[in-house]
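Check out one such.
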Amino acid sequence: MDAEFIVAIGFIVFVMILGYLGVHTKLGAALDARIDKVKDELSEAARLRAEAQALMQSFAAKTAEAEAQARSIVEQAKAEAEALSKEAQARIEEYVARRTKQAEEKIAQAEAQAAADVRSAAVDSAIKAAENILKSGAADSATFVEQGIASVKSLMN
């Protein structure tokens, strides 16, 4: 009997004691429990992954909806701004037309007043010329008429 044989017999006895005590079943049960725990963790991870994907899809849908709503708001704002711009342009054109009409009316009134002033001055000159002619006599009358016509012409221009 040598040392290797004794170690082999000791090992066999040790394994038999372990078999008698049921260590192999306990070891198998522990491994089975560990396998079951790992399976449970994997199923929980799969469930959490599915929830995360559903949540991500939900957020993607909400993001798309928010972007569509933002585009709608921007388009509505542009339409309102364009309408306001058109309305402001129409008001400006109306104001300019009204002011132009008022200015034309003032110009027409000023022209009428100037024509009336010229007529009045022409009548006054004619009256003065007639007075002078009547005062000075018939000889100087042709000269005074010419002077009166000249003064009326100068007042017209």
